[in-house]
Amino acid sequence: MHAYVVEAFGPPSGIAFEEVAAPSPGNGQVRLRVRAAGASLLDALIAAGRYQVKPPLPFSPGSEFAGEIDAVGPDVTTHKIGQRVMAGGFVGGFAESAVVPAVGAVPIPDAMSFETAAGFRTNYMTALHGFKQRAGLAPSETVLVLGAAGGVGSAAIEIAKVMGAKVIAAASSEAKRAFATKLGADHAIGTEAEAFRDRIKEITGGRGVDVVYDPVGGALTELAFRSLAWRGRHLVVGFAAGSIPALPVNLALLKGAALVGVDLARFSFMHEPAVAQENLKQLLAWFAEGRLQPTIGRVYPFADARQALADILERRAVGKSVVRVA
Ligand SMILES: NC(=O)c1ccc[n+]([C@@H]2O[C@H](COP(=O)([O-])OP(=O)(O)OC[C@H]3O[C@@H](n4cnc5c(N)ncnc54)[C@H](OP(=O)(O)O)[C@@H]3O)[C@@H](O)[C@H]2O)c1
Question: The whole model's pTM is what?
């Protein structure tokens, strides 16, 4: 099979494209013929060796993907060959074949394309976990989504709208703001520090927002926290800007506000797997009912997988990026 292989941590241009042996599934595992793989900032950071956890070299990048099962481990009875599934892990998706635990290979609805399935699990589950279990978002509330045209942010807009909230999207360019509006954001604002808080005050009639969804970090975090309404919740989701901000904690006291962490991996795999399964069921039900209509940013051919990661790192990507593997 063909696979992208990180042999030494570095930029996307250094990732090798090679012919390698297809892996065989062991007990409890299934093998996917990968059809599409999501590309995200996480994948680019892992390949660069800039993520907090470094996989052993060599490895294929790609933390979520979808395809058909083409082999099952000797003891696997839950899955069958030909089944269409989505799967996630830490690495492995930028390859024609990937072996995953059977328990993590989730059947996908007939109406869901492989491209949609490849970008479905991580971003929508993070958003639903954030808004439902961590923020307790109510339908009448207003959400401010930072990095709103990124993969994580764009999914947050869609989920907040399905949950009935009003959404203010923050993004750095006109094209990104137009994309966020197309996804259903009620307002789209720029990220320049001077006008940021005034625009939010203007839109909320001086009240502020109930929930901040923050996958960006850096200087925007404090500005967003200062824009919370009384009893607001600021969801810490990620640090795309590269720096982990610090906050004057008196702001939380003055606003009766909370800074709340959101970590999909710890939630799903370590602490609350049953609740995470319920969330995934909810997302698939919304998809089946047509209430959630996932939007993909750009689909790259397999030959351009490195470009997909470079566009994300250089902040050019708009929406969820997906690589079509087959
Ligand atoms: N907590 C969790 O469970 C969880 C789950 C998934 C991902 N994450 C994290 O969420 C973050 C966002 O991931 P993503 O896939 O949405 O990334 P993405 O698609 O690249 O979007 C990130 C957005 O952040 C903004 N940004 C600001 N400064 C940036 C910089 N220096 N470089 C790149 N982007 C910058 C950009 O928007 P503007 O240009 O509009 O500013 C960009 O659209 C990552 O840190 C990821 O690890 C967390």
Answer: 0.96
